[in-house]
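In response to reviewer comment 3 from the previous cycle, which asked for concrete evidence that the modeling workflow produces usable outputs, we include below a single protein chain processed end to end. The sequence was submitted unchanged, and the resulting structure tokens are shown without manual editing.
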Amino acid sequence: VTWTPTLAGSYSLTAVVTDNLGATTTSSTNTITVTGGTQPTVSITAPTTGSSLAVNSSTTVTATATAVTGTIASVQFFANSVSLGTDTVFPYTATWLPTATGTIALTALTTDTAGNQATSSAVSVTVAANQSPAFTSLTPADLASVGVGSSNTVTAVVTDADGAIASVQFFANGVSLGTDSSSPYTASWVPTIAGSYAITAVVTDNLGAATTSSTNTVTVTGGNAPTATVTAPTTGSS
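The workflow returned the following structure tokens.
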């Protein structure tokens, strides 16, 4: 018979011979190894070694894989040897939600259509507690002066070391001026009464951690006095 193996691995070959009176004999077993050619290659491209991730923050793990024999059948992802899932379609990804802090080794196992497998080099990442976002600046600046009825843009420059900014909410004397969820983070403020105002903002990151800015005290003045002139009758009129 002709045999064309389609998967790599170890095979036991036997034969059974039958004579004209129905007597049968089974041969001894020949163990044959089927090789699939060259192993595929696989590597994790994201996150990169040394990355710091926030606990309970969803991360996409991405890998590239190339087959020499056949094509790539699947890529399976692992975090400290625990499977994160398998992807069979390029780009090869898995969603990972780390629930504990520590150092984690991410690897990927790829299998080609000939049964050859290869494991990527480990990518070491650190999972840490979520860091709160921070303010770089808030304007109008502390001790600034603006006029009643003037249109002012309140602006915050914020950062988040291990995640993303979700929103910034602005306040004048504790009254909300609005919330902005995209950079640059701003709100419009038109003060209608003269006096001293406490301008603050609260920034929230994608995991819910919030930070309140320092207070900028802004003075709202009543503006310049109006002018009036009597045009008629004129001085000296009789």
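DSSP finds no helices and 22 strands in the chain. We consider this sufficient to address the reviewer's concern, and the full set will be provided in the supplementary archive.
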